[in-house]
# Entry
Amino acid sequence: MPKQIPHPMEVKMDYNCWYECIRGCGKRYSIFDVVYRCEECGGLLEVKHNLNALRQRSAAEWKSVFEQRVFSTAWPYGSGVWGKKEWVCPLVDDEQIVSTYEGNSNLFWAQRFGKQLGMDDLWIKLCGNSHTGSFKDLGMTVLVSVVKQMIANRKPIRAIACASTGDTSAALAAYGAAAGIPTVILLPRAKVSTAQLIQPIANGATVLSLDTDFDGCMAIVKQLTEDPTIYLANSLNSLRIEGQKTVGIEIIQQFDWQVPDWIILPAGNLGNVRALGNGLMMMLDLGLIDHLPRIACAQAENANPLYRAYLSNFQVFEPVKAKKTVASAIQIGNPVSYERARQTLIDFNGIVEQASEEEIANTSAQADQTGLYCCPHTGVALTALKKLLQKGIIDPHARVVVISTAHGLKFSQFKVDYHHQQLEGVQAQYANPPLEIPATYEAVQSALMKLV
# Structure
């Protein structure tokens, strides 16, 4: 088993965290309370930290601590999330942590694709290179660990539940199974990929396939978790955001503590936007960086409430009825974290762009032909990049990081349909179907003539 010993850089200090209402009413709660919104004003909650205690270490000391912990076998510091435990959730005992050593994912230099776009400094943060194949592992390790601690503290929790378009359910089911905690999954029927559907089934979750969309599932799971013995795992719960905020810290650490010019990410329920901003803002507050990157959010045109709000300079937000999109994980018309994301985009001088179904499919295929294997949501973000370059908003010489949220293998049917030109409304510019030819040397030689 991993070494359960204090890390050599660990120093015991008054590290603490709590929930606090983002609307500024001052209401606080313990992270071990079963609460998702402020009971005073109804505002969303967020995890806050004792920054004065964290400032007892200098920025240089924190950098050294984080560098030494990467891939460490001293439990639980080798995790990309728990290697930053003091910044994430210092109140959970190490023996209650549920981790698959998530995070520390590859920052891929997309050299060839970047050159096609006229760029020389394009990077893809491959968050899908994770235990269940998506960035949701980063947040779920924190949430399930806190629940395990709550159960150890005699809190009567029977199960953890979520509504999902696929990736959240996979992460919850896997981490719940590792912790021995029952999980309940509400999925929109026929709106998730087969690969995503089988993950929670294989991990023993109770999977409920509902004849509705994600927003319908979300409405029901909110009702279900009014029972305090069934704990909510959606990003309305800010514990998820705490784990996911490490992706921004990780990106900058991988650049030797240099800040990129832009970070672009696909946006659905909008918790990840806030998470990214929180991690970066914490680095600024604690002196590890001296300025912030700009953030661009990318939405599918068929599910674009954030984009519409952006067009009004965030003065008006109206939920939409999300239409079918190949980017199924962000097929969300009423994102629960809009209030959080709006402030992040304001703080980071952010931009929102959208992508049509044809743009998503063709950009994903184009990127694949340069060595990637993109999920469609990454295709949304890459399309946004192309548009922002064309508009002159992003300089082609800027250092840009695109966050890839899931592994493309979860969406292989999407790629099969693309290359067989079976995606409705999509003219596949990069279709590359297999050639069916006779089993003869001459036929193979003839087929290979096109390589010359």
About this structure: The CA atoms of residues 417 and 423 lie 6 Å apart. The first helix runs from residue 51 to 54.
